[in-house]
Design goal:
Elements lengths: L1 H23 L5 H11 L6 H20 L3 H4 L5 H15 L4 H40 L4
């Protein structure tokens, strides 16, 4: 039973690795690149749930890939791990993953900062123009 689960896990991991590599624009080691990016993005949504899982799964993948008889002997993986990998790969492909969501929020924040700056300048100009108009009405200037 472990062999079948481990083979399914390995395939799901490879699919996730490809999705992460495509998402981050790297040729290989997509999950590792994703982990490194997520480590840098301390405030990414769901980071605290996703990061430990990815690290655990990368370790399991390395054991299966590099240790003799691990495909048959490793018994810590479950069907729910495979399902999580498949769901996460889909979220990465559809850009609903933590890094994509973080980047969208960062872009919106940057846009809001620019808009806010323009609004402050417009408000200041309106106050100056309004003040000049009032002074003119009062025949002070």
């Amino acid at each position: 039973m472990a062999n079948k689960i481990n083979m399914s896990f390995f395939k799901a991991y490879i699919d996730l690795d490809k999705a992460c590599a495509d998402r981050l624009g790297v040729d290989r080691n997509g999950v590792s690149a994703y982990i490194n990016s997520l480590v840098e993005m301390r405030f990414a949504p769901e980071r605290s749930e996703v990061l430990p899982r990815l690290i655990k799964y990368r370790k399991a993948r390395n054991i299966i890939a590099h240790e003799q008889n691990a495909m048959d002997e490793l018994d810590e993986l479950t069907k729910s791990d495979i399902q999580w990998l498949n769901r996460f790969a889909k979220s990465v492909s559809h850009k609903r993953d933590p890094i994509s969501r973080y980047e969208r929020k960062a872009r919106r924040y940057a846009i809001w900062k620019k808009v806010k700056g323009v609004l402050i300048i417009l408000l200041a100009l309106a106050l100056v123009a309004g003040g000049a108009y009032i002074l003119k009405m009062l025949e002070i200037i």
